[in-house]
Amino acid sequence: MTDEVAIRAEGLGKKYLIGHEIDRYSTLRDVMARAAKNAWRKTADMVRGREIIAGDTVEEYWALRNANFEVKRGEVLGIIGHNGAGKSTLLKILSRITEPTEGRVTINGRVASLLEVGTGFHGELTGRENVFLNGAILGMTHAEIKRKFDEIVAFSEVERFLDTPVKRYSSGMYLRLAFAVAAHLEPEILIIDEVLAVGDLQFQRKCLGKMRSVASEGRTVLFVSHTMALVANLCERALLLEQGRIVHSGPTTEIITVFLQTASGRSGHAKLAGNSQCAGSEYVSLLEARIISGGNLVSDTKMDEDVTLQFTFEIRGASGEYSSMIHLYDKEGTLVLSSTTYARPYEPGSYGHEYTLPANFLNDGMYTFSIMLLKDLMHVEAAAERCISFVVHETGIGREQYGGKMKGCVRPHLLTREFLTTGEGLAPESFHRGAAHQ
Amino acid sequence: MQIILEAGRAERNYWRDLWRYRELFAILAWRDVALRYKQTVIGGTWAVVRPFLTMVVFTVLFGRLAQLPSDGAAPYAIMVFAGMLPWFLFSTILSEASNSLVANTNLIGKVYFPRIIIPSATAVVALVDLSVNLAMLAVLMIWYDFVPTWRLLLLPVFVVLALFASLGPSLFVTALNVKYRDFRYIIPFIVQFGLYVSPVGFSSAIVPQKWRLWYSLNPMVGVIDGFRWCLLGENSVLDARYFLSSIFIIVLLLTVGVGYFRRTERTFADLI
User: Fold this and answer.
1) Is the pLDDT of residue A437 over 50?
2) Considering its fold, how many domains does chain B have in total?
3) Does A5-261 carry CATH code 3.40.50.11930?
């Protein structure tokens, strides 16, 4: 085992037992029979020293299975995956909080884990006392904390309130103090789990700066996050987890692309005909819809690529001029935009319409389409309300300085430019005067 | 420094880890003590009021009304108080430790450290209470013009014995409590029951010979008798046979307690 490898995992796996309850609505006889069976199972488990699981049946759930990977000393490794992929379980095993069910992992170096900010903080104690408490919990020695105390307080900007009980702090102050302590950890291996997901703009910028300096100091860092932008900016290499297994590992940009392409439970395709939520008439009905990006049928798209909505519909005769209209909603339900096609008469038959949203226009997050067919620009003949969704993901471009949430329904790439001012100000008079000078 | 993590691997570095985490132990103990007395008025006086009132009630009840004999010529109040010192140590540790892990769920689920630190920190809280009680005993002795003998110097030995007697069952119960939360209800009952079965309100001398052996199976009997022997001087007699059998029980319980705790420790984060 060379000194170059900080962490080596071989065949790591973690199994949990989960309970299920069978259908509740049954006869009294069923209920009693079930209760007796459960009581028997629980007693047997207790006698055998096993965990007692609530429920009627017990299932084995492998949160992590057959994980093999190596982290070199000084490497910054990103770990990404959808919810439930096993990321937090992996971190817990590496942090020695829980034991693996199978496999082994060899760790060279002192490990500090940041699975949550403010671990051990107690409201009744003052800020000063909590710094020492939290620092000790994270693994710093008393001498170390004392040495860095001034730095920590300066970073947190709560100097004035240091001797007040923490329960009086605002949530922002609490976070800043908690992160300040964590930011001054100096372990050989640092494991971070999405702790930067909270806080205001200024705080996030500080965190990002500190994270980057920690990463550049030559420490080994394992970083789990859902924010692709951060992972892309900080990590050279990444692991992709899917349902407890490592499905891919390699350069971060490659992993992010693969991540966006793997199924997240959405298919990028929606059947509209026969769907009770889609209204139609005897003359007109919507058939199917799908989302296309980068030449593929997708449900997750990258911010720097076009997104195309295609849908098909059927017209079974009748007069009038038809057009389609779409509404786009963001994840908060705000109507972002609407758009229509040109109205014209249609012969009976099947037709398809396509709308393309430009790249670098939408914000990250989930968007939903509503599709409507209009007759004579006034009557809604068929409608599929919020029938198909897709999620826009960032790629890290333009996010080197700030990793927090960018608000807004859209995030178009605006043309920005700096210009020289002559000191005359921007008042309307000066504008005309300037023009006259030319 | 290399660590290998594997299913079922005995943690060979455990005791060395414990030494490395000694500062965390100190700070968690400090936290428990500080929190007890923060923003309270009663917090500080509770350590005084509870033993004082218990002593008064027992003295009146057992000493005056029931006319039970004290140890030798020692005043009944002092005999009762000398027995209460280790008893309150034991009951504090048992009650606080048994729930300590569940109360510190946030730490156990997020940070690694040898888990035995948490229930052990409650021992420090109990020791602080003990020192307050010792001060009260000194006042009591002055009040009664009672002078202790050289045996007083052996008090630290008996304090350590009391700690072992408390930690053994406490660690066992603490580990059990993580899996089976019933103990939240059982512990108060045990403490209540034990208060009357142990020689707190009365002297061991009144227990008849034929019951003596069963009676001595209670680890606190040896500890309390030891404390009395130490504090009351010539007035108290310590029967070596029964004392040794108590020590044997204490060591046994300590081994079982620590052993069971260590064995189940690795599943705490999953169960808590």
Assistant:
1) no
2) 1
3) no
Between A and B, how many residue pairs show a Cβ–Cβ distance under 8 A? 100
Expressed as residue numbers, the domain containing B178 is: 14-271
| ipTM confidence score | 0.81
Q: Which residue on chain B is closest to A102 by alpha carbon? A: B7
Does a structural domain hold residue B2? no
- What percent of chain A is helix, strand and coil (3-state, nearest 5)? 25, 35, 35
Quick one: A71 exposed, middle or buried, by C-beta within 10 A (0-12, 13-18, 19+)? buried
CATH topology of domain A269-393: Coagulation Factor XIII; Chain A, domain 1 (2.70.50)
Please indicate if any CB of chain B lies within 8 Å of the CB of A138: yes
Half-sphere exposure of A49 (CA within 13 A, CB side): 5
Looking at the complex, does the CB of residue B117 fall below 8 Å from at least one CB of chain A? no
Higher pLDDT: B261 or B202? It is: B261
If you ran DSSP here, which 8-state letter would residue B59 be given?
A: I
The neighbour count for residue A390, using CB atoms within 10 Å, is: 22
Whether B60 is in a domain gets the answer yes
- Region of A194 on the Ramachandran plot (φ > 0 left; ψ -120 to 50 alpha; else beta): left
Which of B165, B27, B180 is CA-nearest to residue B91? B165
| Alpha helices, H only, A168-272 | 171-183, 201-216, 228-234, 252-261
Distance CA B46, CA B31 (A): 18
pLDDT of residue A235 exceeding 90, the answer is: no
Q: What is the pLDDT of residues A307-350, one digit of tens each?
A: 999 999 888 877 789 999 999 988 778 889 999 999 999 888 89
The whole-number pLDDT of residue A267 equals 64
Mean pLDDT of chain A: 83
- Residue B121's Cα: distance from chain center in Å? 12
